[in-house]
Structures are given as structure tokens and as C-alpha cells.
Design goal:
two-stranded antiparallel sheet; PRib-ATP_PPHydrolase-like; Helix Hairpins; ATP-binding; nucleotide-binding; 6 strands; 17% strand; four-stranded mixed beta sheet; Ubiquitin-like (UB roll); Histidine biosynthesis bifunctional protein HisIE; single chain
């Protein structure tokens, strides 16, 4: 648990109804999952039990997330903003997802900024592109496309995938030797992509890699 050494719930600024907004964020990949409200009691219960509790404005009662659905949230870390009037909960989401619709995130609707944008709809707003990339690779494995390079690699299997990792590693090394920052960035991106294809082929989730990195955070 991370919080200020002298932290007190009394330091937070609750609104006139005794509530404070709380954003739930995936502790590994940074996905914004949901926004709900807390009062002092629900926040205290969350800190004491590490099971996230919110205040329901419609029912006027405290509710433990996932009490009926099984989609519980385990608190990993909590932060408050510079004005002390908003919270971010870094949580481990269990079950089908944070949203009552079954989606991982409640924020799956998108307002198009550029109407000419032909990109596929993102169902979850990730804070890092690597997690989004792995989800795309996973989608390709579930719904193959003849024109997909990812499906080509997955169909060819380990020898082709591992050969590509070797080639991309060598190209990354040469880009570093040439001190070409543009080439280094591009080759690093190619290497990460092919590593993720290998992970998918071997049944290893990108989140497993993130969990290892998280466990090593304080050792670096």
C-alpha cells in the first residue's frame, strides 16, 4: 500500500454530500476501468480489508464491488490528487470485468474526434500501447484473417517466430551500433511485436510479463 506517511482520511476533501470520486485503474496495464464514489466509511473499509467498497448514490448504501457478481476488486495502491478531492485506486480486477455489462471497462463508448478515422474500435482505454498490441494479437489468434501477418506467423509456428525474433534482435543491435535513434525505435518496436507473438504462441499472457516486471520494481 502506498500513501503519504502522515496521511489521514480527514485530509481529503469530500463534497457537500460527503463523497469523493474514485477512479479504478488496472494495477498492471493501466486500463481505466470505472468511476464510482466513496464516503469516509467505504474508504476506511477498503483500506482495512483491501476489498474495494464504494458508496451507491442510487441506493444510499455501501456496496462491496463484486459482492453479487464475483467481479471483486482487490486494492493494490491508492493515490489522491493535488487538490485532495479525487482518488485513483490501482486494483486487481477479478471476474468478467469492472462493468456490469460484462466489459472489462465501463469506458467502452467512444466519441469520434476525427470522423475519417478508420481504426478499429478500442473496447478498453489502455495507458500503454504494448497491452493494446497484445490484445490485438490475441484477437487475431481467435479470429484469423488471411491477410494478417500475425496469423501467418502463428500458423507457421515456433521455428518461423523464433527465427524472426533472432533477425529482429540482430537488427536492433546493429541500429544501436549505428546510433541511429529512428532505426533503434523502429527495430525495438519490431522486436517487441515478435516477442508478443511468441508469447501468444506459447500461451503466455502479456500480463504475466507485466507481473514479473512489477515484482522486480524495487530491485532495479
Amino acid at each position: 500500500m502506498t500513501y503519504s506517511t502522515n496521511f489521514s482520511i480527514e485530509d481529503l476533501r469530500f463534497d457537500n454530500y460527503g463523497l469523493i470520486p474514485a477512479i479504478a485503474q488496472d494495477w498492471l496495464d493501466g486500463s481505466i476501468l470505472m468511476l464510482a464514489w466513496m464516503n469516509k466509511e467505504s474508504l476506511t473499509m477498503t483500506l482495512e480489508t483491501k476489498n474495494v467498497h464504494y458508496w451507491s448514490r442510487s441506493r444510499s448504501e455501501i456496496w462491496r464491488k463484486g459482492a453479487t457478481s464475483g467481479s471483486t476488486q482487490i486494492l493494490k495502491e491508492i493515490r489522491f490528487d493535488c487538490d485532495n478531492d479525487a482518488l485513483i485506486l490501482l486494483i486487481e480486477q477479478n471476474g468478467s470485468g469492472a462493468c456490469h455489462t460484462g466489459e472489462k471497462s465501463c469506458f467502452f463508448n467512444e466519441i469520434k474526434i476525427n470522423q475519417s478515422d478508420k481504426k478499429e474500435k478500442k473496447t478498453t482505454p489502455f495507458s500503454n500501447i504494448c497491452s493494446e498490441l497484445f490484445n490485438t494479437i490475441n484477437e487475431r489468434s481467435i479470429n484469423p484473417s488471411e491477410k494478417s501477418y500475425t496469423n501467418h506467423l502463428l500458423t507457421k509456428g515456433s521455428n518461423t517466430i523464433l527465427k524472426k525474433i533472432g533477425e529482429e534482435s540482430a537488427e536492433f543491435i546493429m541500429a544501436c551500433k549505428d546510433n541511429d535513434k529512428n532505426s533503434i525505435s523502429n527495430e525495438a518496436a519490431d522486436l517487441i511485436y515478435h516477442l508478443q507473438v511468441a508469447l501468444m504462441h506459447k500461451g503466455v499472457n502479456w500480463r504475466d510479463v507485466l507481473a514479473v516486471l512489477e515484482s522486480r520494481r524495487n530491485n532495479n
